[in-house]
Amino acid sequence: MLKNFKLAKIDYLGLSIVLLCAVLLAIWAMKHTIALRNILLSLGCLLSIIYIYQKKRISPFSIAWRNLMPLLFIGILFVWVFIHYFLFSQDEVLQLKELKSIWFRGLEASLLGWVCGLVIIQKPSRINLLAYGIIAGFAALYFQYLPKVWVTHRLFHPDYLNYIFYGKINGVLIGTLLIAGVGGRMIDLLSGRVGSGLRVVFNIAISVLIIAVPLYAYVFIFDAKNGIGLAVILGLAWGLWGANRFLGLQSHRDTWRSKLISIATILALLALIAGFGKLQLKQSPSWVYLIEDIQESIQIDKYPQWKSPSTLGYPSLPSGRVITPNVFERVSWATAGLRLIPKNPWGNGILQYPLERSLMQLYPNLPPNSLPGSTHSGWIELLLSFGFPALICLWGALLSVAYGAIRGSEPSKGVVISLVIAIFCLYTVGELSNHHAVEILLFTIALLAALNLRLKPPISEN
């Protein structure tokens, strides 16, 4: 009786941790939330430590060492960041400041994400609370957006400065996590790992509507082509899953009814993404020239305007058309960043504007603040900041999470694989190497690592 009471208290503590993480996800990518993030992360870590202690004391469990590989990679990353400060630092004052702020919050986020995952694997339905948190963040965004529609009678209202998500990428970051998580959950429902019957059909319908929320924002609020592109990649991944379910070697195990529901759901998802993609194409016709723009933007020796487009302007192509500005910036700056990596393979140790810091060493005579600050690629910027060891640790953690999910049969398998795909792609095309983006990355990897676990009671000795 007493043990049941203690287990109930632990369960409520776990629920509190998941709810706290939901609130954190709601505000994590919003501007002017640093103080609240610090409070929530510190409180979450305290609750997480209490939870682990109480859980091990009252209901002991064990975890196979091979399932801790993602956490091992994350741990090595923090050790490398610490070593870098002592051996390779190029700006000790600023690097120490980031150690005490960004990296400390990243450590807190890792612990909190892992414990949140431990709570969820014992009650998988609680993962929905994290989605509700992100939806609450989008509700705040729409609260800002809808009055503009009411006044102007126009749907298209991009504003990169005044919405609660600053710029494009912060909304795309949190929106893509929502799309991947909800879509992955839908795959789990269709696979029969979670629920059955009419309840599954209802949950799938709700999931499709939820996915439409960030897609609409990508087109009419953020005007974010990369958001639509990321959704297309996820849609194709789900389409491959549907094709395998219909035609794969184990397809004979499924009934025709379940196959048809799966195919209809995937087709509805693809149609939804394609519909918003078509709307985005109308708003930004430059999609038509994307391949040509990329091919030309890579040639940074041919077009020196990449060093300062605001003062040098954007190049005209042989066809006479001016290159699409945002494509030129993203591709040319990423190309420049890749060229700089061999010159400093250990990185400069600073997450804030690592491209600008590296370029200042290469072009010391250019005026201050004239050089680009970001490559618009999180992975490239992490290479510029902390070199190949950091990238190996992060990719190693993600790949070990993906391997564990593919080999396993946990209730959240679809969620884990979808989010791993989303993170790889998201941090390839997004300037996500600084502040909250690093915290969210570490939180998500630790969360996914825990979702792969299956807790076992310890073997008692006779």
UniProtKB/TrEMBL annotation:
The chain crosses the membrane at residues 12-29, 35-53, 65-87, 102-120, 127-145, 165-188, 200-221, 227-248, 260-277, 379-402, 414-430, 436-455. It comes from the Bacteria. The keyword Heme does not apply. Keywords: Membrane, Transmembrane, Transmembrane helix. This is O-antigen polymerase. It comes from Polynucleobacter aenigmaticus.
